[in-house]
Amino acid sequence: MTITWTMVMDFSPRFAITTGGWNHSYAALKTTKECVISIPTVDMVDTIVGIGTCSGQDTDKFRKFDLTALPGKHVGAPLIRECLANIECCVTEIIERHSIIVLDGLAVWYDDARKEKRMLHAVGDGTFIADGRKFDRKESMRSRLAPGVVEG
């Protein structure tokens, strides 16, 4: 499924997504208690829209959109080779009242050889924003540590 609402929680690989009983994937998440968050790039926008406008209940999305399923190391759900990154996750909590599913990341796979690295972000009105600029602030953060504090 495509998902437009996600949230990183804590300072750990914990995520929240929202979906509910209206979505075929919701039943799969409740049953299997696992999934893969696949991170597409801007060159996949038409594929993403297509995936989001059909149901896995009656459509083999890998076949229809010519995607390559790769086995995960920790979950049975497939990774998507064409995506920039894939995060294997297990469901840790379902908050039915708000249709929120909390996921813990177990492993991440990143395709460093992929030329396109600009990720898509859904605005929610059928438009997307792409990013891709890298800001490395490791050095400046290290220099701001209090004296005697060691990175851990």
From TrEMBL:
Xref: SMART domains: Flavin_Reduct (SM00903)
Presence of the UniProt keyword Phosphoprotein in the record: no
InterPro entries: Flavin_Rdtase-like_dom, Flavoredoxin, Split_barrel_FMN-bd
Domain Flavin reductase like residue range list: 1-122
GO terms for MF: FMN binding; oxidoreductase activity, acting on the CH-NH group of donors, NAD or NADP as acceptor
Keyword tags: Flavoprotein
Source species, domain of life: Bacteria
Cofactor dependence: FMN
One Pfam family this sequence matches: Flavin_Reduct
Keyword Cell inner membrane applies: no
Record-stated family: Belongs to the flavoredoxin family.
Protein known as: Flavin reductase like domain-containing protein
Organism ancestry: Bacteria, Pseudomonadati, Pseudomonadota, Alphaproteobacteria, Sphingomonadales
